[in-house]
Design goal:
With 441 residues, the protein is of the alpha+beta class. Strands 5-4-3-6-8-7 form a six-stranded mixed beta sheet, sandwiched between helices. Strands 11-12-13-14 form a four-stranded antiparallel beta sheet. Strands 15-16-17-18 form a four-stranded antiparallel beta sheet.
Length: 441
């Protein structure tokens, strides 16, 4: 904080802090605090998040970052005001830890709520992600291997972002909460908009950066810090005395990362423009993002990974998610996020080239084939029973989607290939119409 000859824009006192709105905007300490609090409260008030009969219970997501510490501080302060000014909500706080450092979970206090590691997203659907006393070290090791296997840093950064979003939605469902508050700042959302455009998610950026994001059948995502800049967060934490609660583990890990991703490039791009005097960069990007809407298509499909809509002509996973999964050699650990009704120990998922079907293999040579658009189960085969296989090694569709080749292992250790002809459920009347031929390797 530096002294200035300017007067505070809210009162007649000398200013002590330069505002982010322009060169001639400055505040005194007291008015700066009020301005930050007003931005937070107005973001909830003008969207009527907890009004008009809406549920008061909400999930508040923290990750130890400066913005999440600021969000928690504002919520706690607002809950302690007099009844006429008090924030009417019942928060459930969950801290998501993303650091892969050994023993990191033991260093995070559970005094203010639940603590969950990001690696909990790999747990099967029937297991709870909030499980106190559970040893997360093995999950963290497996999750670390998954991220290390990514062929590019862009794929790694994007899969971490998508998995964190999936974990948040899963936490909300597990806690039976319909509203989620996250701590994305204006700078975070501007970077997200640009990186999403580069990756191919241009049609999704308006909902990804909205102050209140509502998706059919999913909890409402609220971003109450959308109009707050990261610089304001840093100053606010220091002024309110919350800076001591910030955890810098993840930042230090990112500095050790060698290489450059699209996400890091867009972050540096926005920072450079701001440093060079283009103060309106963030607000301009967010204003433009809010106006970008895809064509309304009633037959749009839902991506099985990111759970966002996209053109039906490309079914299964949306193109950005498909390109990410192509860069992860072994993504069987997160395959259950794509296939939710496979009741065996899942090992592999393969989408057909034209996107009409996807095949799923599981432990003990279980095989299922689904139609992508409706996710309808077309066939379920126990190849251990019918072909005496002990496991399935690989799956591959023909270029026209109508044949599936399955490579499996017999009890004697030898491998063989079975080819299956595929037809939609409306075209077949019995299981035997899912025909196959077997040839030894």
């Amino acid at each position: 904080m530096t002294k200035s000859s300017l007067q505070c824009v809210k009162c007649s006192n000398p200013s002590t802090i330069a505002g982010s709105e322009g060169k001639n905007v400055a505040y005194c300490d007291g008015c700066y605090r009020e301005m930050l609090t007003h931005k937070f409260r107005s973001a909830l008030g003008k969207k009527r998040v907890f009004k008009d009969g809406a549920a008061k219970e909400a999930l508040v997501v923290s990750d130890g970052s400066p913005s999440s510490v600021f969000l928690l501080g504002q919520i706690i302060d607002a809950l302690q005001l007099n009844p006429h000014q008090k924030l009417v909500m019942l928060p459930t706080i969950v801290t998501i830890v993303s650091s892969l450092t050994s023993g990191v979970m033991a260093s995070v206090s559970e005094d203010e709520g639940h603590v969950v590691h990001l690696s909990a997203v790999i747990r099967p659907p029937e297991e709870k992600v909030i499980a106190k006393g559970r040893d997360a070290e093995e999950e963290i090791r497996i999750f670390s291997q998954l991220l290390s296997s990514c062929k590019s840093l862009t794929a790694k950064d994007e899969i971490v972002r998508v998995l964190k979003e999936r974990l948040i939605l899963r936490l909300a469902a597990e806690l039976d909460l319909s509203t989620v508050l996250i701590s994305d700042t204006a700078d975070d959302l501007a970077r997200l908009s640009l990186s999403a455009l580069c990756i191919g998610r241009g049609g999704q950026i308006s909902e990804m950066t909205a102050g209140v994001e509502k998706r059919k059948g999913l909890p409402t995502i609220v971003r109450p810090l959308k109009e707050v800049r990261s610089k304001e967060i840093a100053i606010g934490n220091r002024m309110f005395g919350w800076e001591k609660n910030v955890i810098y583990v993840e930042e230090n890990e990112m500095k050790r990362q060698v290489g450059y991703s699209i996400h890091k490039a867009t972050e540096d791009f926005v920072k450079t423009l701001h440093t060079e005097g283009f103060q309106a960069t963030v607000s301009t990007v967010l204003s433009t993002s809010s106006k970008v809407h895809p064509d309304v298509n009633p037959s749009s499909a839902l991506c099985t990974l990111c759970q966002r809509t996209y053109s039906k002509e490309l079914v299964g996973m949306c193109p950005p998610c498909q390109s990410i999964m192509d860069e992860i050699p072994d993504w069987s650990r997160i395959a259950h996020l794509v296939v939710e009704d496979f009741y065996y120990e899942l090992e592999n998922v393969v989408f057909s080239p034209l996107g009409c079907f996807y095949a799923v293999s599981g432990k003990d040579a279980m095989l299922c084939v689904y139609e992508s658009t409706s996710r309808q189960l077309l066939e379920e085969r126990d190849l251990h029973l019918s072909l005496r296989w002990t496991g399935i090694v690989a799956l591959a569709f023909s270029p026209d989607d109508m044949c599936l080749a399955v490579r499996g292992v017999k009890a004697n250790g030898k491998e063989e290939v079975a080819t299956f002809e595929i037809c939609k459920r409306s075209e077949i009347g019995a299981e035997d119409d899912f025909t196959h031929e077997v040839s030894a390797l």
